[in-house]
Amino acid sequence: MGVATCGNKYETAVRRGDWCGCDRPSGWIGGWAALTVALALGIALLAPLKRLADRIVFPGRRIHEADMDRVRQELAEPADTDTLEVLAHALLATRGARGAG
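Predicted structure:
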């Protein structure tokens, strides 16, 4: 290949580019720089990826505070669990019908 061998197998590997150690940042400054870049990239991508995941999991769904307050008040009214169960099923059914339309 035209690579001069001087007896040191690591030096020959570095010259050929086979040794993976030559691609890594060297020293503690390089390590901290790589860590800082990875952390900044993670922080920058966190919000957009969370919004994307929310859109995939909950397509077209937006729950407003007024809706949540109304549902909480309605679910607090029943005195027994049977009435609460019927009311909860009715609320979920109407929420699903409104969201589908």
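Summary: Residues 27-57 form the longest helix (31 residues).
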